[in-house]
Design brief:
By secondary structure, the chain is an alpha/beta fold. This is Aconitate hydratase.
Length: about 900
């Protein structure tokens, strides 16, 4: 007889060999078998089953949680007797199950006939916040029928006792420092992309954080300072840039935080992180999700001379001076009342931004979810009772400046804001709850999003979300055993939840491994939309999009809302004329280089909205700019488009959505057709003049304004990881932008990559046109380095096929992907030829395909983080330089970066992605 329990025991033995504990239980069949063993006093597995039942079962809406809640109810009512779990303990276990079936059981008992059980169940219910409409409806109906318990629970909710009766945040928090690295710390260090498959197995994934030696050092600090929390620090840099935020924060919390519940393994909260230049905005939001603390240390500052001017070294770079030391092992004290950081009695810095009233609530409640759901329950309960909700939570921060116009993001937030008390317009700095229009979940974080949805007891997408998509792009390259085990399960969960999914769980339409950002860009059909996506490159050229952790994505899916301050904006405009041999990607890189020069090395984009007045570029091409803003460390970006350009972009989007419908991807609610209808409505509004394209007000206030001079861009621009910079903090940042001539036509290139979200149809046409050009000039094309080409979407391949370009690419390639026979093993070696790979992220993600260790890769992608596209080898460091499509193609053919003469010859007559600034300034 098959036994799920025996399989589980075998898995436990296998995990022991990896130094791992038993995996948490989420399946009903296994827990049913364990319960049968618990009920049998003579069963040899009874003690272990009892332990697993109590301490190792996942809460929320997992099928195991449903079984656990039902059995606990049986114990409370006396239907089942377990000596080790008396009824009072059963109630305690229910209190840690975070909604879903456990709420159903508590309501059954609270509204039942047994007065003792009802009172006890009511006391537990008062501590719970993850209630949904059906749960509230039961309480409301019972209250209206005169049930005293229902009234008691609702009155408790209206007073927010679930929050007010929590312990206060400690006045002093002792920390001991641990320098995780110098310079910007990518989340790839905390949660490597090549280990993405294990992210939903929290203990296993925790073993990949930083390094084994770092983990040992953290444990040693904890042993030496048992009364202190370890604070992870980015010395001379920003903490948490890049993607993989939730898994990164989960890992930090696993090693340095505290257990959220004694009955839920490996779910830790309250991590403390810091950076000389603060915390990346998206990473900081994720820290809030877990009730953690993020501190801007400012422990290194620019050196200033007697004349008041910034002092620079012989290379012209700013010299930094250390204000105070945070070397590993330094003991510091955070005071949450004075909001200062101390070393002994010495005050080091004001850290008030880490302890705003809202953040203090997150810390006290153990995370932001509890506050979001709590506020909602309080409001609903007060409405049912017909009373005013007790003022408990910090009021929303509402900033309105009389006579000041609105930036584009301020306009969008004002339109989408909910729960605002004032009728005045809100400006930057206001804390706002906003409705979310479009949500995206990606495949290497999707399983965590599913876990978050289960933990908050959500079962269906919020009806106020216009559309949501679950991608398959990050695991598109290789259909290996890990992908086969994880992806179908993820797609079924999300499809059942109400998302449009890249893969059909029923197999009715072919897998669509299109890059998530491209799909979200297409299904965003209103430039007034707010988009939340589980990837840092959720940067749309329509609307305003925020990359988010898997938890914030789950919250947006479940509630249709997100909470955040309205960010400040930086206005970017253009002047001059783009040279015909340059590509728009060069303008993107030059924007960052010119901005840093204009502001003496200060990145004014960091943590802010880039409002780019791009005007004349359709959505696909404009996306090249907005996508890069993630590397500029911006919070988000907004494209200001002319009316005709926006209409063109919306027509393209409609066509792409129709393709998805034709493939059979729409669901019962016809979400995709609804998006086409919305696009038609928006186009009609623009054409009629009823509602022109979004523009800022002429008197809007900006943090800064950057004017990009196109005349100054005379050579292709390359972002260089600068792996040999003497200053470690300046390695692997996106701030080193160099002109082509810097390399003097000599730097060897081991592999070229054209792909990821940074390319569009025009880029693939450039590849085919360049190959034809080179053949005409040289007689034939020989690759001296491999060239990997991955189209971002299937529709691009379809269009290229119709126009004849795909046939040219096939002719020059030595490998072409096959959907019928997908690769089952990741490529580890490359020949000097062109590879046409499956649409998706490919090398940019670094979790499946990678370049050979130590290679110098020239790519169109976005990531130059250490180890992402290419890992280091003993012989040399891996390098991932970023450039335009024509530079990458020519470099693969030559086996080195070309000189200017070679470049101009190769692109002669080719229609590159060009750009002309709008004739007039676009303002409302």
């Amino acid at each position: 007889m098959m036994s799920t329990y025996n399989d589980y025991i075998q898995e436990i033995e296998e995990r022991k060999q990896q130094g791992l504990h038993p995996k948490p239980i989420d399946g009903a069949d296994l827990l049913h078998e364990m319960i049968n063993q618990i009920k049998d006093p003579g069963n040899p597995n009874r003690a272990d089953s009892l332990h697993f039942f109590i301490y190792n079962t996942l809460p929320g809406t997992t099928s195991a949680a449903g079984v656990k809640a039902k059995f606990l109810k049986e114990i409370i009512t006396g239907e089942a007797i377990v000596e080790e779990i008396p009824p009072a303990y059963a109630f305690e276990l229910l209190s840690h199950m975070k909604g879903g079936p456990s709420i159903g059981v508590l309501l059954d008992l609270a509204l039942g006939d047994d007065a003792v059980h009802a009172r006890h169940a009511a006391q537990v219910l008062k501590t719970q916040v993850f209630l949904y409409d059906a749960d509230i409806e039961r309480l409301k109906k019972a209250f209206q029928e005169g049930n005293a318990i229902a009234r008691d629970v609702l009155e408790s909710y209206a007073k927010a006792e679930f929050f007010t009766q929590l312990p206060e945040v400690a006045e002093e928090i002792k920390v001991v420092t641990f320098i995780a690295g110098e310079g910007d710390i990518s989340t790839d260090l905390l949660s490597p992309g090549n280990q993405a498959h294990s992210r939903s197995d929290r203990e296993l994934h925790g073993k990949c954080m930083i390094s084994t030696s770092a983990q040992e050092e953290i444990k040693a600090l904890q042993a030496k300072h048992p009364d202190a929390s370890v604070m992870l620090i980015a010395e001379k840099g920003t903490m948490g840039v890049g993607s993989s935020r939730m898994s990164g924060v989960n890992n930090v919390a696993l090693w340095t935080g505290k257990q959220a519940s004694p009955y839920v393994p490996f779910v830790n909260i309250a991590p403390i992180v810091a950076g000389t230049n603060g915390i990346s905005p998206i990473f900081l939001t994720t820290v809030d999700v877990t009730g953690g603390i993020g501190i801007d240390l400012k422990n290194w500052v620019k050196k200033v001379g007697p004349d008041g001017q910034v002092v620079r070294d012989e290379k012209g770079e700013t010299i930094l001076e250390e204000v105070y030391s945070v070397a590993t092992g330094t003991v510091l004290t955070i005071n949450t009342k004075t909001k200062k950081l101390y070393q002994g009695d010495k005050e080091l810095i004001d850290i008030a931004k880490a302890f705003t009233p809202q953040k203090m609530e997150f810390i006290r409640a153990g995370g932001s979810y509890a506050i979001v759901f709590g506020k909602k329950i309080q409001t609903v309960a007060a409405k049912i009772l017909g009373v005013e909700a007790t003022t408990v939570f910090a009021p929303a921060k509402e900033i309105s400046v009389e006579g000041q116009g609105l930036t584009a993001v301020e306009k969008i937030f004002n339109r989408n804001a909910v729960g605002v008390t004032s009728d005045k317009v809100l400006h930057a700095g206001s804390d706002v709850r906003v409705e979310v229009n479009i949500v995206g979940s990606q495949d290497t974080t999707g399983l965590m999003t599913a876990q978050e949805l289960e933990s908050m007891a959500a079962t269906v997408i919020s009806p106020i979300v216009d559309g949501a998509y679950q991608s398959g792009c990050h695991t598109a390259s290789v259909w290996d055993k890990k992908a086969q085990a994880n992806i179908p399960r993820l797609m079924k969960f999300m499809n059942d939840f109400g998302l449009i999914t890249a893969r059909d769980p029923k197999g009715h339409y072919p897998a669509m491994t299109d890059v998530i950002h491209k799909v979200l860009n297409d299904i965003t059909v209103d430039e007034w939309a707010i988009i939340i996506g589980g990837d840092s490159h959720t940067r749309m050229s329509k609307g305003v999009a925020f990359g988010a952790d898997s938890g914030t994505v789950a919250l947006a899916l479940a509630t249709g809302e997100a909470s955040m301050p309205i960010p400040e904006s930086v206005k970017v405009t253009f002047k001059g004329e783009m040279k015909d041999y340059m590509d728009f990607r060069d303008v993107v890189h030059a924007t960052q280089a010119q901005m840093l020069k204009q502001f003496a090395g200060e990145n004014v984009f960091q943590g802010r909205i880039i409002e780019v007045h791009i005007g004349t570029l359709p959505a696909d091409q404009a996306f090249t700019f907005t996508d890069w803003t993630a590397e500029m460390k911006a919070k988000a970006s907004i494209c200001i488009s002319e009316d005709d350009t926006l209409i063109e972009s919306l027509e393209i989007a409609k066509g792409r959505i129709q393709i998805m419908i034709d493939k059979g991807m729409d669901n019962e609610k016809q979400v995709l057709q609804g998006l086409i209808n919305k696009a038609d409505k928006r186009i009609a509004e623009i054409k009629s003049g009823e509602k022109p394209a979004l523009t800022p007000d002429a008197d809007a206030k900006y943090y800064a304004e950057v004017v990009v001079d196109l005349d100054m861009i005379a050579e292709p621009m390359i972002a260089d990881p600068d792996v040999h910079n003497d200053d470690v903090s300046k390695r692997y940042t996106h701030d080193t932008i160099r002109e082509l001539s810097y390399y003097a036509g000599e730097k060897k290139v081991d592999l070229g990559f054209v792909g990821s979200c940074m390319v569009h149809k025009g880029d693939l046409k450039i590849v085919s046109q360049m190959l034809k050009n080179l053949e005409e000039q040289q007689g034939k094309v020989e690759f001296r380095a491999p060239l990997v080409v991955a189209a971002p979407t299937y529709n691009i391949i379809d269009e290229l096929t119709e126009e004849g370009d795909w046939e040219i690419l096939q002719r020059y390639s030595g490998f072409e992907f096959s959907d019928i026979l997908p690769k089952s093993i990741a490529r580890t070696t490359y020949e000097n030829m062109m590879y046409l790979e499956r649409p998706g992220c490919n090398l940019c993600m670094g979790n499946q395909e990678k370049a050979a260790k130590g290679d110098t890769v020239l790519a169109t992608s976005t990531r130059l983080f250490q180890g992402r596209v290419v890992e280091d080898a003993e012989r040399k460091k891996g390098e991932s330089l970023l450039a335009s499509t024509p530079v990458v193609v020519l470099s693969a053919v030559l086996g080195r970066i070309p000189n200017m003469e070679e470049y101009r010859t190769a692109v002669k007559g080719i229609d590159l992605t060009t750009f002309a600034p709008p004739v007039k300034q676009l303002v409302g």
